[in-house]
């Protein structure tokens, strides 16, 4: 599992327990479903979402105390995220995720869809057992947002007219919504004021958008070993992201490559080189920086020094993933 460079060993133990609990929580009685779920969680991941939840909890409770409900919420958020990845991989026909074969390529498309559905169902059950209706409402809305994001992405595949605003909206539904809702949910469990809850929501929203933009830059400039999947995977699937959208302003030939859906053998590599030769990557990075700054501004409005210090590490981690 890739380590996040934060300096808060107080949550290290909680993250280790979370890792063990994830497999216990899926608890599928059918051996195939259990094998699919175990395959997913064994592949690891950065666990950035539960880390953020635990840090928000740490920052909003009295006596800097993470409640059992916070720990369960962190686990729920990671299960929801993982379920969405299973379905995304089916839709995008991805063969590799986190350096290992995806569920549908290891088992079958049918098993992958069932495994994703099962994980969503399990997360809903554990969410209901938090016995906090407002948190349930906040987190359950995310599953609707996932569907909205997937539909928006499908409708704009290979659409060279997609705007940055369209891209940001889609990125919110697919990525930032879960982080934003998780941050707000953690603040709710801490019984903070509505104003503080909303500021943590904004923190998570902008942090999530920055995370997605950096992820999309890495899809262009990263290697297969660093990404855990082939570079240019998004382009190949027709998912046009910030670096390409900005590069289109300088590289008209990209329109031709998009229109023929990168069908020729070297089209993806050609597109990647054209993006690198433009200001697309720098402009995308600048956009990510704007969202990082917006997340930090929201954090400042919580008037919590502990929160600002702890969660600033996450902001720095996200923006420095390119280094």
Automatic annotation (TrEMBL):
<keyword id="KW-0414">Isoprene biosynthesis</keyword>
<protein>
    <submittedName>
        <fullName>Prenyl transferase</fullName>
    </submittedName>
</protein>
<keyword id="KW-0479">Metal-binding</keyword>
<dbReference type="InterPro" id="IPR000092">
    <property type="entry name" value="Polyprenyl_synt"/>
</dbReference>
<dbReference type="GO" id="GO:1901663">
    <property type="term" value="P:quinone biosynthetic process"/>
</dbReference>
<dbReference type="GO" id="GO:0046872">
    <property type="term" value="F:metal ion binding"/>
</dbReference>
<dbReference type="GO" id="GO:0008299">
    <property type="term" value="P:isoprenoid biosynthetic process"/>
</dbReference>
<dbReference type="GO" id="GO:0004659">
    <property type="term" value="F:prenyltransferase activity"/>
</dbReference>
<dbReference type="InterPro" id="IPR033749">
    <property type="entry name" value="Polyprenyl_synt_CS"/>
</dbReference>
<keyword id="KW-0150">Chloroplast</keyword>
<dbReference type="InterPro" id="IPR008949">
    <property type="entry name" value="Isoprenoid_synthase_dom_sf"/>
</dbReference>
<comment type="similarity">
    <text>Belongs to the FPP/GGPP synthase family.</text>
</comment>
<keyword id="KW-0934">Plastid</keyword>
<keyword id="KW-0460">Magnesium</keyword>
<keyword id="KW-0808">Transferase</keyword>
<dbReference type="Pfam" id="PF00348">
    <property type="entry name" value="polyprenyl_synt"/>
</dbReference>
